[in-house]
Fold these 2 entries.
Entry 1:
Amino acid sequence: MMELNGKKILLCVTGGIAVFKAAALTSQLYKKGADVKVMMTPAAQQFVTPLTFQTMSRNHVYVDTFDEKDPKNIAHIELADWADLVVIAPATANIIAKLAHGLADDMISTTLTATTAPIFIAPAMNSHMYEHRAVKQNMQTLASFGYRFIEPGEGLLACGYVGKGRLAEPEEIVRSLEQYFLKTNEQPLQGKNVLVTAGPTVEVIDPVRYLTNRSTGKMGFAIAEVASDLGAKVTLIAGPTALDTPFNVKRIDVTSAEDMYEAVINEFEQTDLVVKSAAVADYRPKEVFSHKVKKKEGDLTIVMERTKDILAELGKRKQHQFLIGFAAESTNVEQFALQKLKKKNLDLIVANNVKEAGSGFATDTNAVTLLDRNGNRKEWPLLTKHEVAHRLLLEALAMMKDDKKQ
Ligand code: CTP
C-alpha cells in the first residue's frame, strides 16, 4: 500500500524496553515513503540512543525542549504543526497520564498538547499497570478526546509477567496508520459485510489425536485484512492457526467442520460477500472416543463419515449474497473447479494447483485462475496472497455492481 508515501509522521518514543521496536517501526515507516521525525524522552534514550533513530529516519532526532537549533522557529511548535499524524510508541503509563491531564512539562508532552494532528497511542507496560484503574481511566479520557489506541498484545512481557501490555508489532502499527490514511473513496467495500473463513479444521479422534490438513490460513487472513482495508466490516471465522487477527476484523475461532458450519450459518444472513478459503475436512471420525485408543495387534480401522458441506449449504440458501469458493487441486484443476462452481451454486471460484511452486499451503504467494458463473476465466501470475486478495475482492465487487444493474 502507498498510503504512507510522503506523509509527515511524528513518532514520540517514551521510555520502556519496547523502544527497540520503535526503531524497527521507524525503519518500516521510512521504507513506506513516510517522512519520519522522532522525538525521545530521556528515559527512552536509556534504552536506545537517538543516533539509531536518526539513522533509521534520516532526520534529526528531538530530545530536548530547549535545544533550539533554529532561532527563527520554536522546535516543538513547529513539529506540532508539521505533523500529518503523531504516533506515541511505546507509550508509557506516565505519558498517557500526562496527556489525559493536559500536563506539558517536557518536549513530548508539550508537542502533544500543541498539535492538532491525529494522535495514535501504542501503549506498552507491565500487565498490572495496564489494568490499573488510573491508567484505564486515563485511556478512556484520551479515547473520549478522539485519541486512537493501538492495543498492546498479550504474551510474555520483559518483566516476566504473562499478560496484556506488549507493544503492538511494528507491522500492526504501520497497518493502523495506513488504514487511517486510506481515503473514504478508496474504500469501495464500505458498507459491505464480508465473511471470510480461513485455516484448517480439526477433527478429533480421541483425547490425544486428531485429523487436520496443511492449511495455514494465510490466504484467508490476507483476504480478511485487505477487505477491512477496503472498508468492509469483516468477520473472520478461523480454524486453528498461528496467525494474528488482522486490524479491525472480528474473529471467531472454531475447531471442527461442524463448529465452522454453525458459525458461518449464524452470520450468513447479514453477510453480503462470503469468501470460503478454509480447508474444511470432508470427513470426520464417525465415533469420537472418550478415552485414548490403545494399540492392539493388527490394523486399526477408523470409520469416517461426511461432514456438512458448508459452501454447498450456502449455495442453497443464497439470496442477495455473493459466494466465492476455493478449489485446491492437484490434477484437472480447472475442470474440477468448474464442477464445484456449478454444484455449489457459487458466483466465483478461485482455482489453484497446490503442486505448483509458490502456490497452495504455507506460502506467501499464490498462482490462481478465477472462474465465474458467467463462464469468464482469468489466469493470474504468481502474486503475493495480499495481491490475490485485493484483485479478488475488486473482481467480486465489479460483478456485484453488474448484478445490481440488471
Ligand atoms: N467447503 C465447505 N465445506 C466443506 C468442504 C469444503 O465449505 N465441508 C468449501 C471450502 O471452503 C472451499 C470449497 O468448499 O471453498 C472446496 O470445495 P470441496 O469440494 O470441498 O473441495 P475439496 O474438499 O478439496 O474437494 P474434493 O475432495 O471434492 O476434491
Entry 2:
Amino acid sequence: MLEGKENITLLDSPRKIVITTHHKPDGDALGSSLGLSQWLRAAGHTVSVVVSSDFPTFLDWMPGRDEVIIFPDQPDLVYNLFAEAEIIFCLDYSALSRTNILEPVIRGANGQKWMIDHHLDPEDFADLSYWDSQAAATAQLVYRFIVEELDGKDKLNADMATCLYTGIMTDTGSFRFKAANAAVHRIIADLIEIGVRNWEIHQQVYNSSTENRLKFLGYCLLNCLEVIPEYNTAIFALSKDDLKQFAITTGDTEGLVNYALSIKGVRLAGLFVDRTELIKLSLRSIGEIPCNEICKTHFNGGGHLNASGGSSTEDLLTVVERFKSILPQYAEVLTN
Ligand code: 5GP
Ligand code: MN
C-alpha cells in the first residue's frame, strides 16, 4: 500500500511543498489538503495548496481555506511554486487528468510526486504512493500517513483534525456508507479527542443552504426527476436553462443524486448536468451495480463501485438516451 517509502526521509529537513487535489474540490479533496498542509507547516516545511478551480461555498469556512491558491487567479505564482517545489502531493486523485488545467503543470514539474488516494486504477506517475481503494476517504489516509508513517500525531491540532474530519464525513455520506467501518470510527474518535467540534461541522456543511438552493432542490424534484421502474433506476437531467434560472454555482448540485437513490426500490441513480462545455454525469448505486464500470466504459470517467462520475461532449438529451440504452446490459444486477 505504501510504495516509495524510502523517499519519506526527504521530510527530515525543511522542504518546499505544493499540495494539489482534483478539479472542483469536494470535502475530502479540500479537507485532506488543508489538514496535511497545516501539519506539514507545523513540522517546519513551506507549503502551498494549489487547485484548478473554485470550491463549494459550504466548504468556505474550513480552517486554512484562505491559503488555497486557485491556479487561474494567480498563474505566475503557481508556475513559480511548481518550479521550486521539491515535493508535490497529489491528494484524492490517482489520475493526473483529474486536476484539469493543472495536469501539464504537475507533469512538467521536477519535484517528487507523492500520491495519497483511495480511487481505483491508479496511474503510474508517483514517486511515493500511499494508496488504499478500501479507505473511506483520502482524509483517512492522510491521518494514517501522519500518525503511522510520519509518527506525527503529537503535532495534530484541532484545526487540522477539523479538516480531516470534514473529509471523512463528506466522503462517507456522514458515516452512512459501508466504508465507514470500525477503523474509521476509531479515527473519528481520535479526531474528536484532538478537539473537533463535530456538531459545528455538520451544521456548516449540511445546514448552510441558501433559500434559492432549497427552492432549486424542490424544482429539480418536481420537474427534472425521471424514474425508470423496469430497471430500478432514477435520474435527474438538468439543462443550462434550469441552472441559469437558479443561478447555480459550484456545489449547488452536490447531493442531489442521492434523492434519486432514496426512492424505495431504486438501485441506480444518475445526475446529468449541462455545464455548457460538457455534460457532467454522476452515478450512485447500491450493491454490486458497477457505477465505475459504466462511467469508464461509456462516459470517459471512473470512480468507486457505488459512486462515480464522467462526462460527455454530446448534448444533454443524447447523453440521457445513451445512458438509458445501456441499462439493458445491466438488467441482471439492476433487477435481481
Ligand atoms: P461525483 O459524482 O461526486 O462528481 O464523483 C463521484 C466519484 O467519482 C468521486 O470519487 C470522483 O472522484 C469520481 N469521478 C467524478 N468524476 C470523474 C471523472 O470525470 N473521471 C473519473 N475518473 N472519476 C470521476
Ligand atoms: Mn475522496
